[in-house]
Amino acid sequence: METLQKVTLAIALIGALNWGVVGIFRFDVIAQLTEGAYQPLARFLYIFIGLSGLMALQVLFTYWRREEEPKSTEEIQSTSSIKQI
Fold first, then answer.
1. Does residue 27 contact residue 21 with C-beta atoms inside 8 Å?
2. CB atoms closer than 10 angstroms to residue 52
């Protein structure tokens, strides 16, 4: 599952870079490669990138969930012993 998350994150980043190029230079890389933004292949790629972005949200929420998990007793004891020094 970790590989799938990395791939979807990479695709979402590529899509974000494409939108950055659209915003700065008014040039759509995907539309240029597929000979138009409304071509079936271009629409498929836009949908694929959008779904990858949604799946990349799972990576973000998983990261946040890990940050909120309670620490193990060993970690708590090691931090308390550091505070005593």
1. yes
2. 19
